[in-house]
Write a structure and sequence with these properties.
heterodimer, A: mainly beta, seven-stranded mixed beta sheet, 11 strands, about 0% helix, B: mainly beta
Chain lengths: ~110, ~110
């Protein structure tokens, strides 16, 4: 069966510090991968998605970047965090066809102080 | 861009009652999905309904889709305290070559024991 992992679960970082959030998927090959951000009590905002290694599509201009160094690994990064980067970050995967169910990881709660 | 918008934003009911949530969207879709999110957790897929379907059931869940009105509803029958969560609809982006879903802002359901 497929599983998706995210770490860390929670993170508190000062403004201006770098960020690296990791997401890995097990039990499937060539998944589509997604990064979302959720502000408190709000819906999900799609940040990035990837249909293959090294292929990243950015949805919202921002302070963040994403990379996919391996088939089942998706990394969200920032060189210098802003206060507005605080939120709940969710990674998800779907099958290659794309237009189907998305499976979400447990999320990372990021607080920038 | 299209966006699913849930209505109501918040709903509080007694255990055993039925809960109905609605979702409206703006453009053509291939399918629409409903997800559930417990506080501070990832999203869990509940049900997917395709654009050529009008109604779908899964256990105590019933989803309807009216493509002419660009709306969907999620009915939870005989609600339980454990159904307390936020519920989101997600619509796919029918643009060629994209693999994106647009999530609404969610309905926060509280079931009182």
């Amino acid at each position: 069966s497929q599983t998706i992992h995210q770490w860390p679960a929670t993170l508190v970082q000062p403004v201006g510090s770098p960020l690296s959030l990791e997401c890995t998927v097990e039990g499937t090959s060539n998944p589509n991968l997604y990064w979302y951000r959720q502000a408190a009590g709000r819906g999900l905002q799609l940040l990035f998605y990837s249909v293959g290694i090294g292929q990243i599509s950015s949805e919202v201009p921002q302070n963040l970047s994403a990379s996919r160094p391996q088939d089942r690994q998706f990394i969200l990064s920032s060189k210098k965090l802003l206060l507005s980067d605080s939120g709940f970050y969710l990674c998800a995967w779907s099958r290659t066809s794309g237009k189907d169910t998305q499976y979400f990881g447990p999320g990372t709660r990021l607080t920038v102080l | 861009s299209q966006q699913g918008e849930e209505d109501p934003q918040a709903l509080s009911i007694q255990e055993g009652e039925n809960a109905t949530m609605n979702c409206s969207y703006k453009t053509s879709i291939n399918n629409l999905q409903w997800y559930r999110q417990n506080s501070g957790r990832g999203l869990v897929h509940l049900i997917l309904i395709r654009s050529n379907e009008r109604e779908k059931h899964s256990g105590r869940l019933r989803v309807t889709l009216d493509t002419s009105k660009k709306s969907s509803s999620l009915l939870i029958t005989a609600s339980r305290a454990a159904d307390t969560a936020s519920y989101f609809c997600a619509t796919d982006d029918t643009s060629a070559g994209t693999y994106k879903y647009i999530f609404g802002t969610g309905t926060r359901l509280k079931v009182l024991a």
